[in-house]
Automatic annotation (TrEMBL):
This is Small ribosomal subunit protein mS33. It comes from the Eukaryota. Keywords: Mitochondrion, Ribonucleoprotein, Ribosomal protein. Residues 83-102 have a biased composition (Basic residues). GO terms for cellular component: mitochondrion; ribonucleoprotein complex; ribosome. Residues 78-102 are annotated as: Disordered. The lineage of its organism: Eukaryota, Viridiplantae, Streptophyta, Embryophyta, Tracheophyta. The gene is LOC113851371.
Length: 102
């Protein structure tokens, strides 16, 4: 019986050495207890830049002339609505405020 257990001990030591060497060579993280570890998540590549590449660059936001023109159009439309009486109400005079006063 002693030789069988000695053989198992030597085999276990060799396997442990092989596992440690493999981990060192390939950069793996050893987890002998088998508990959950965040190492897999920390090792993942960040994917924010890759997602951002899917969306085209908006040149309108870079050009101040385009932004100024859009703002001017918005203000002129708002002024036209106000003249017709269709503009936004003053603060505290809207639909929700009227509902609350009933």
């Amino acid at each position: 019986m002693a030789s069988g257990s000695l053989k198992k001990m030597v085999s276990a030591a060799i396997n442990q050495g092989v596992v440690e060497a493999r981990a060192m060579i390939f950069g793996h993280q050893l987890n002998p207890t088998g508990k959950k570890s965040p190492h897999k998540l920390l090792r993942m590549k960040l994917f924010g830049d890759k997602v951002a590449e899917w969306y085209p660059h908006d040149i309108n936001k870079d050009d101040p002339l385009v932004m100024a023109r859009q703002e001017q159009e918005r203000l002129s439309k708002l002024e036209m609505l106000k003249r017709r009486g269709k503009g936004p109400p003053k603060k505290g005079q809207g639909r929700r405020a009227a509902k609350r006063n009933k």
